[in-house]
Design brief:
Two copies of one chain form a homodimer. Chain A is mainly beta and about 180 residues long. Chain A has one domain: Electron Transport, Fmn-binding Protein, Chain A (Pnp Oxidase, Chain A). Helices cover about 15% and strands about 40% of the residues of chain A. In chain A, the strands form three sheets. A seven-stranded antiparallel beta sheet of chain A has the order 3-2-6-9-10-5-4. A two-stranded antiparallel ribbon of chain A has the order 7-8. In chain A, a hairpin with a 5-residue loop joins β11 and β12. The longest helix of chain A has 9 residues. β1 of chain A pairs antiparallel with β10 of chain B, so a sheet runs across the interface.
């Protein structure tokens, strides 16, 4: 028996994206966003509303997207509830330090091991920001023997859209483009 | 030490979205997509390329997005590798049966317990489909005591963009809009 719940933003899982930007003086900020995703081999989108981050994007037209990991859940949640418009030392309180990306005019958060470095390409109605992924930088600690990202080392956290929980990644249960061949 | 990996579609986690559509004769189809996300309280986006699904969307301008769950990993992977343009009995092979949504002209897959029922609102360059979420329907089996979706009952699978693995949801590690208050 199915029940109708109305119109809700219920994709599961959702990512926890930490958006890094500089203001006009080169001061770094970060915010937390779950509404977004990949929309092409070199493109992503993120819905941001109105924040210090969007002020910064209007000036710099560049941003990073770091992936929140289980080791930094508290800091990643904090940058989602404290406003960069009101809290001058937000990054310090989060315990985040930054270096400038070699590819775009935006900060990489040293403590988060994976960052997508993006140029802002378009702002769609409703505050949807489209970015071109110029580079992905990863700390060596999350790379597997093949030199690529190991999701089991990265340990991204997962956002529960229904009850706002954060979850860990569980065990591997299958292999895409492979398991389905059993039915062919 | 960080390493540059080039431009890659590396958001973690990514969802496994099963897109349901009808063709001009009312025949149901489904495909698997990981590139997309929520972009507003009532909006989602999904990048689809060119498929039977996009043929159908041109005609019906409506679709459902079902969330792939751990119990149907093989079937959900199958609909991503078999083409509805070539395989006439794709839904039967997947073991999927459907009923028409009460809200949009698209099929709900009975076997998958959560579906977002959407109207197509816009196609952006590159095959990005924007949808307005008209209703969410959920099987009672995934609802908690509060009548809302329980992610721990839904058990969505998680796509690993780097190595194409499917993963289970793990344990809860935090609470959004709450844990970060420790740093305020």
């Amino acid at each position: 028996m199915r029940k109708n719940l109305g119109s809700k933003p219920y994709i599961f899982p959702q990512p926890v994206l930490i958006i890094g930007t500089y203001d006009e003086n080169g001061k770094a900020n970060a915010m937390n966003a779950a509404w977004g995703g990949i929309v092409g081999m070199h493109e992503l989108i993120v819905d941001l509303g109105s924040h210090k981050t969007t002020d910064n994007l209007a000036v710099k037209k560049a941003f990073t997207v770091s992936i929140a990991d289980a080791a930094h859940t508290v800091a990643c949640d904090y940058v989602g509830i404290a406003s960069g418009r009101k809290v001058a030392d937000k990054m310090e309180k989060a315990g985040f330090t930054t270096v400038k990306s070699d590819f775009v005019d935006a900060p990489i958060i040293n403590e988060l091991p994976l960052a997508l470095e993006c140029e802002l390409t378009e702002i769609l109605p409703g505050g949807k920001y489209l970015g071109k992924i110029i580079n992905v930088s990863a700390d060596e600690s999350i790379l597997g023997d093949d030199g690529d990202v190991s999701i089991e080392k990265l340990f991204p956290i997962i956002f529960d859209a229904a009850h706002s929980g954060y979850y860990r990644l569980g065990d591997k249960v299958g292999q895409a483009f492979s398991d389905g061949k059993k039915l062919m």
